[in-house]
């Protein structure tokens, strides 16, 4: 009985040491990976393409090229990066609900004019042939040059400089993009107005 209790204590001590080591290793890895884990290669590629930079599709190279241009300012469901050499340049990734699944979009904005430089859909699970068309150039290209200061608006007839046309037969998916983009624009506007330019996690 005494021997089995002694063995149990040894096993317990070993497990405590092992779990402490694993926790330390996880913490060290997390801080070392940091921003790289926050940025997907798909988002980096989308934002670099918006800026006209075509990088060979290597995850490490995409993230390295992105990190030369932008520095992270906020993480979470809505992520912001600010331009290193041009602090008026902002990149954003936002994720939210679509009609059938999550939509992730990325855009670049010039905060001096509040013009959207470009927008791309990074991931979506909408119906092929209908809502899936939100990823197509003819939909996303209409966001280029829109004024995002007061949000964007889906409209049947575009008469204002913040309006875009929905994908025919996919109004719900188009509306999801509108809501997601407006949520990100509002969060970015608040960040800029409050002057909170430090990294926020």
Pick out its properties.
single chain, 201 residues, alpha+beta, 2 domains, five-stranded antiparallel β-sheet, two-stranded parallel sheet, 6 helices, 7 strands
Notes on the protein architecture:
By secondary structure, this protein is α+β, with helices and mostly antiparallel strands. It folds into two domains: 33 residues; 155 residues, no CATH class. A hairpin with a 3-residue loop joins β1 and β2. About 5% of the residues have low confidence.
Structural class: alpha+beta
Rg, Cα atoms, Å: 22 Å
**Major sheet: arrangement of strands:** 1-2-3-4-5
* Strand content bin: 15-25%
Structural domain count: 2
**Could you give the count of β-strands?**
7
The biggest sheet amounts to: 5 strands, antiparallel
Count up the helices. Answer: 6
């Amino acid at each position: 009985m005494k021997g089995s209790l002694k063995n149990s204590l040894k096993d317990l001590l070993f497990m405590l040491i092992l779990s402490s080591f694993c926790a330390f290793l996880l913490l060290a890895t997390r801080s070392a990976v940091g921003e790289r884990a926050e940025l997907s290669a798909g988002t980096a590629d989308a934002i670099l393409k918006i800026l006209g930079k075509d990088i060979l599709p290597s995850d490490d190279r995409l993230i390295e090229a992105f990190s030369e241009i932008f520095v992270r300012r906020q993480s979470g469901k809505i992520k912001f990066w600010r331009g290193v050499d041009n602090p008026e340049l902002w990149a954003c990734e936002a994720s939210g609900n679509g009609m059938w699944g999550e939509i992730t979009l990325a855009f670049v904005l010039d905060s001096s004019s509040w013009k959207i430089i470009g927008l791309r859909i990074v991931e979506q699970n909408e119906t092929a042939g209908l809502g899936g068309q939100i990823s197509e150039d003819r939909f996303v290209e209409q966001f280029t040059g829109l004024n995002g200061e007061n949000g964007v608006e889906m409209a049947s007839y575009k008469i204002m400089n913040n309006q875009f046309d929905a994908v025919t037969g996919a109004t719900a998916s188009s509306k999801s993009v509108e809501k997601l983009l407006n949520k990100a624009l509002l969060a970015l506007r608040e960040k800029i107005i409050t002057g909170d330019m430090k990294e926020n996690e």
